[in-house]
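Invent a record, attention on tokens:
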Amino acid sequence: MKTTGNVKEVKDLKNVHPFYKGSEFYFTSSNKKVRQSIVVKKINGQLVKFTLHLLDKEEAEDITPSLLNQLQTIKF
């Protein structure tokens, strides 16, 4: 993630997509082209790591919420 940009831990989850809420931790980094995120969530008692590589462009504004909605449906 450091090669993409400064790595930041996101702690204020009030104004984020519901997928990120309740995560154990959420790190992000970005530059003019891409945004990378690592999210660890507990799903049915199991820790699951999600690594997301998304374009940091206007086109991704429609795709990203749909992707996150799909990830919320994962069950074990």
User: Anything to note?
Assistant: The radius of gyration is 12 Å. The first strand starts at residue 8 and ends at 9.
